[in-house]
Amino acid sequence: MFSVFFVMLIIIGCTWVFMKLMYPRPPKGYYRPKVGDNLTPRHCNYCGHSLAEWRGIVDGEHFFCNDEHQADFKAGKTYQPQN
Ligand SMILES: [Zn+2]
After folding, report:
1. Fewer CB atoms inside 10 Å of the end CB: C or N, the chain?
2. pTM score of the predicted model
3. How far apart are the CA of 60 and the centre of ligand 1, in A?
4. Residues within 5 Å of ion ligand 1, judged at the Cβ atom
């Protein structure tokens, strides 16, 4: 009876190691907001996408979901939805 538990323990251990190797954790604070981050949803000034403020870029009065949109907005481009 003990060997059954022992084998199960080894399987669980191997699975855990495997998962750790296959899916390493992203750097801390990448997906989760840090304490004090602004969770207010805002709309990207370029594409109109709604995003929590901590995940985007705040540039004075403007807000962007990534630096690419920030650069395109400053370049005076208009958003072209990609299908
Ligand atoms: Zn955007």
Report:
1. C
2. 0.57
3. 16
4. 44, 46-47, 49, 65, 69
Nearest to 49 by CA among 73, 36, 66: 66
The CA 36 to ligand 1 mean position distance, Å, reads 23
12-71 confidence digits (pLDDT tens): 887 888 788 777 775 555 567 778 888 899 999 999 999 999 999 999 999 999 999 999
How many A from CA of 74 to the centre of ligand 1? Answer: 12
72 Cβ contact partners less than 8 Å away, ≥ 6 residues apart = 46, 79
Q: What pLDDT does residue 59 have?
A: 94
Return the residue matching tokens 């296959």: 22
Question: For residue 11, what pLDDT is reported?
Answer: 85
